[in-house]
Amino acid sequence: MGRAPCCEKVGLRRGRWTTEEDNLLLSYIQANGEGSWRALPKNAGLLRCGKSCRLRWINYLKSDVKRGNISTEEEDLIVKLHASLGNKWSLIAGHLPGRTDNEIKNYWNSHLSRKIAQNTTKRKTSSTKKTRKPRKTSTLSSKQSNMNPSSDGLLADPNGTSPTLMQSTNTENKQVQNIQQVVESDLATASSSMGDSNEDKEHEYDWDWDFEIDNSMVGLGLGFEGEIFDGDVLSWPWESPTTQVGLDMKKQDEMIAWLMS
DNA sequence: AAAAAATCCAACCGCTGTCCA
DNA sequence: CTGGACAGCGGTTGGATTTTT
């Protein structure tokens, strides 16, 4: 009854992949394409679970996987997207061409979470007052008017409503640069409006934005302490109890589009 | 130089949603 | 309708490497 389990764990190899295994997987997928992960190990002559093969392919062997250090521009973008999306690693990775969800997750856990924790400690010891910083104000409607999905790297997802960075090898670098410029610009503006000169020197992630969705202002106050400033809306627009229970994907997409614009 | 501690990251685990028999 | 296979995702682990003592 039913199908056979996806893989028998008996007799399968685990742990690090060898070069030989990589070559087997690579040549098989190049010849037959990806997919059918259950049957792949047997057909490719690998003593691995199909799930393991898929992971190895996606995170390491795929040709568009970018190796090397995360740049400061990419780091900024990760932090910014994480502030809006939370631990949605695959979603964040979708906006960083060549980076995998696993890589971003690891980078967050090993670098960024610690960096933020350190800054939290520093700020808590250096200052006990919670003062509201000047806001960087903009509106989604005005941002949307500047969006050109067909030319600025934000392309409509053909299979859905989410704005997705399409990974074209020809335009990839330009897309990244566009995103990086926007992020840098936003961070520079936010930074220049901050009062504490010591904080200005360091690249901290502490934003405070307003934006407008469906003609209603939504506020975002984000700090290292996780502080929500007085007067701010306490939940994300798509989580708002006034909209609907659970995620409002349309508003989430609008939010992402705004962040990326 | 050696041991201990910290860091990094590839890989694994388990869960969820979707598809299909 | 039910239940199993599968793909995909986020959390966690474990071992290799690097840094510190």
From TrEMBL:
Entry GO MF terms: sequence-specific DNA binding
Keyword DNA-binding appears in the UniProt entry: yes
The entry's keywords: DNA-binding, Homeobox, Nucleus, Repeat, Transcription, Transcription regulation
Biased amino acid composition, Basic residues: 121-136
Sequence ranges assigned to domain HTH myb-type in this UniProt record: 9-61, 62-116
InterPro entries per UniProt: Homeodomain-like_sf, Myb_dom, Myb_TF_plants, SANT/Myb
Protein's cellular compartments: Nucleus
GO biological process assignments: pigment biosynthetic process; positive regulation of DNA-templated transcription; response to stress
Bias (Polar residues): 159-174
UniProt GO cellular component terms: nucleus
Principal localisation: nucleus
Myb-like domain boundaries: 9-61, 62-112
Region (Disordered): 115-174
UniProt superkingdom: Eukaryota
CDD domains reported for this sequence: SANT (cd00167)
Protein name: Homeodomain-like protein
Organism: Artemisia annua
